[in-house]
Design goal:
CATH superfamily of the largest domain: Glycosidases
Low-confidence stretches: 1-40, 204-211
Number of helices: 14
Strand order of the largest sheet: 33-32-35-30-29-26-10-31-34
CATH architecture of the largest domain: Alpha-Beta Barrel
Number of domains: 2
Helix content: 10-25%
Distance between the termini: 55 Å
CATH class of the largest domain: Alpha Beta
Radius of gyration: 26 Å
Shape: globular
CATH topology of the largest domain: TIM Barrel
Structural class: alpha/beta
Mean pLDDT: 88
Length: about 725
């Protein structure tokens, strides 16, 4: 699971690999110049590597030759460059990829006394190829060397062509900052990485939204005659793990399921269940999960981890899917299991009811980050691809019609979430003939590691994240296009874990924010991306129900109730059509700064739409208004469709962008949850209640194929329209 990475990856990278005392002291000793913020556009000397100097990066940059021995080479080159005549090239050697090694890099210290700017922008042009990566980072340091705040940008793919990336660093108490440590480091043990045009400059504060009842305006066009594609029902899936009685769904004393959870899942239109887990699937041996429950073992969730009785086993998963009117999607154990074990599981399911979809393993491309992290397998992409081929062959000998998926490793964040940059390309090159889909997890946001940053900015970054998700899915799709034509035509995309995700740990001030109305707007916008991405046919939100922060169903006054994101899913699963049709809109836009692990984004629409129709002659228009306070007055033009005068609108909205239905974190002796951050101007996070977020239906008067409708602030609305021709006798 991605939370495993968030708990430790950044700290290890910055503190453990770069801020070693020898390197830090040398940088500190060589800092000499004072900078005047009001006189400079770029606070960083020689950020474009134009000035000659004693080291490989030129003037002002420090290179520790002793510590970098055998790590590779650094040189100023004349191609590629982002500006001027020079750029910086890294060629990492094999020793650079060794675990725990300080990476090949250069750095410099900038005295902060005369800068005095609370928010800084970091930008650079980056490129990488052949397994290398490059990261540019800034760390604010106190006089004693302790850290105040940090930010970084990175790339691990895309080739030698440079692409601009940026982020923002905020110092809430600028007086605490004595120096800025700026570093440029290369990852990997092969290939080349490039950087040019590093700029550190003042950043304009973003995210402040004032109360304003004056509506914005938009124009919408829907062409009901232009069908884009059928809408796969498999887009409305979820995750249910075997641990802790299926995340609390099963009562181990009675063997009964929580009927409220099942009812809510059915009402929301959940169509598929991914089982037995993400991380936990690669430690799950199915034969231990069958037979009388009283005879099943207590099993560790992972080696040296907590334990559960294996109560939600294979037969219980089948029963749960049946009760929810959903189908199972199985993740086979490719971490500690074998192809033969998976094939036997296929055979067992044949006696109970065939399962169509099988995924080979989960996130096997990740390492264990520290002693407190769950163990990971860190399989190489070539070895994993060979596993996929072997698993597929063994499983299809039992059932030839299975749809089998391999796992991909791609993301759009400002720091790579995989240790193998070429994973997806390698897996596809070796195993494309054996798979029907590629499973990715690149639709989490906003991934706030340390909880720092302007609250409004963090929400803007989350609401802009679907822009990056769309681009990331398109990039993966292009990799599939490079496989043999027969494979490229067949292979689809599955996003088997996705959803609003902020941070982990009881001290995190955004831990419980996945339940807010703002998170629901992210869900709706991401669903639009899935619908409009031609290859995406499967999606599983993470996860259905549990007593902490990750479930989309949670406890309130000892009862399980839906959270706002589940309402957003319901709009698409129950109040939408079966065929996607062409739609377009124009609306005001916003710029989102980088926040958490989300890159910055510009000209993101405050308002977006997606449309569909069904076989009964109805047309559906979903409008997503992301603005915190302003309604959106839209002129709607329907082409190829004459509506009746009366329609219906399903509207999800609430009292504020951080409003929620009042689900509660569990009370655990000795554990105190951090007070959760509130988002201005509403500041509703600590006032949750079922009445704070609602999904309601109302009648709509439609004046003809061109009419106006005002979409409330911070809302998702589905307008359902019936054809006038279909309504005539």
């Amino acid at each position: 699971m991605i939370g495993r990475w968030l708990t430790s990856r950044w700290t290890i990278f910055v503190a453990g690999l770069l801020l070693g005392s020898v390197f830090l002291n040398r940088l500190w000793d060589e800092a000499s110049s004072e900078l005047h913020a009001e006189e400079m556009v770029n606070f960083l000397p020689n950020g474009s590597f134009e000035s000659d100097g004693p080291g490989p990066a030129g003037a002002d940059w420090v290179f520790d030759e002793r510590k970098m021995k055998n790590k590779g080479t650094i040189a100023r080159v004349d191609q590629p460059v982002g500006e001027g005549a020079k750029g910086l090239q890294f060629i990492p050697a094999a020793a650079n990829a060794q675990a725990g090694a300080e990476p090949l890099g250069v750095g410099q210290i900038i005295p902060y006394a005369k800068i005095g700017v609370g928010q800084l922008s970091l930008s650079a042009s980056l490129g990488a190829e052949g397994g290398a990566s490059v990261t540019v980072g800034v760390v604010g340091l106190r006089r004693n060397g302790s850290e105040v705040a940090r930010g970084a940008i990175t790339t691990n793919q895309g080739g030698a062509e440079l692409a601009l990336s940026s982020t923002m660093i905020e110092f809430k108490k600028p007086k605490d900052v004595a120096q800025l440590l700026v570093f440029v480091v290369a990852g990997g043990g092969s290939g080349k990485a490039f950087v040019d045009g590093i700029v550190i400059a003042p950043a304009k504060a973003a995210g402040a939204v004032l109360e304003d009842d004056e509506p914005m305006t938009a124009e919408i066009r829907v062409d009901a005659g232009r069908v884009i594609r059928p809408i796969p029902r498999t887009l409305f899936g979820t995750n249910v793990e075997w641990i802790d009685n299926g995340n609390g769904i099963l009562d181990p004393r009675t063997g009964r399921f929580d009927e409220t959870v099942i009812r809510l899942a059915r009402e929301a239109g959940v169509s598929q269940i991914r089982y037995p887990g993400g991380l936990f699937s690669d430690h799950f041996h199915w034969k231990e999960s069958i037979g009388p429950r009283e005879r099943r073992p207590m099993k560790q969730h992972f080696p040296k981890g907590p334990s559960s009785k294996l109560n939600l086993g294979t037969d219980e998963a089948i029963e749960l899917a049946s009760k929810m009117d959903a189908e199972l999607f199985i993740t086979a154990n490719a971490g500690s299991g074998t192809a033969e074990e998976a094939a036997e599981w296929v055979r067992y399911f044949q006696t109970k009811g065939k399962v169509r979809y099988w995924e080979v393993g989960n996130e096997l491309y990740m390492k264990s980050f520290d002693a407190n992290s769950p163990p990971a397998f860190d399989t190489t992409p070539a070895a994993y691809a060979d596993q996929v081929v072997a698993f597929a062959e063994a499983m299809r000998k039992v059932e030839p019609t299975l749809l089998i998926g391999a796992i991909g490793a791609d993301n759009f964040t400002t720091f790579p979430l995989t240790d193998h940059p070429q994973w997806t390309k390698t897996v596809l090159s070796r195993a494309s003939g054996s798979i029907d889909f590629l499973a990715v997890h690149n639709a989490y946001a906003p991934l706030v590691v340390d909880g720092k940053g302007n609250p409004g900015d963090i929400y803007l970054a989350m609401l802009a994240a679907p822009v990056h998700i769309r681009q990331s899915l398109a990039k993966v799709s292009k990799l599939i296009d490079q496989t043999p034509p027969r494979d490229a035509q067949r292979i689809k995309l599955a996003v088997t874990e996705w959803g609003p995700f902020f941070s982990v740990g009881p001290t995190a001030p955004y831990l419980d924010h996945p339940k807010t109305l703002g998170s629901a707007l992210f869900v709706a916008s991401t669903m639009k991306v899935f619908l409009e991405s031609p290859r995406v046919e499967i999606a599983h939100f993470f996860k259905l129900s549990e007593p902490t922060f990750m479930g989309w169903i949670g406890p309130h006054n000892k009862k399980m109730i839906p959270k706002a994101p589940l309402f957003a899913l319901e709009i698409f699963a129950k109040h939408f059509g079966t065929e996607l049709v062409e739609s377009a809109t124009t609306s005001p836009t916003f710029d989102a700064p980088a926040a958490g692990l989300m890159p910055s984004a510009s000209k993101v629409p405050w308002f977006e739409v997606v449309a569909s129709k069904d076989s009964s002659g109805r047309v559906f228009l979903v409008g997503i208004n992301k603005h915190f306070t302003q309604p959106m007055k839209a002129k709607i033009n329907l082409v190829g469709f004459e509506p009746t005068r009366t329609g219906a609108a399903w509207t999800l909205t609430g009292t504020g962008i951080d409003a929620h239905t009042g689900t509660e974190l569990p009370r655990i002796p000795g554990l105190t949850w951090a007070r959760q951050m509130e988002i201005p101007p509403s500041k509703r996070m600590n006032k949750g209640n079922p009445s704070e977020v609602t999904l309601t239906q109302q009648r709509v008067t439609i004046e003809g194929p061109t009419f106006e409708y005002t979409f409330p602030a911070r809302s998702v609305t589905s307008i359902e329209m019936t054809s006038a021709g279909a309504a005539r006798p």
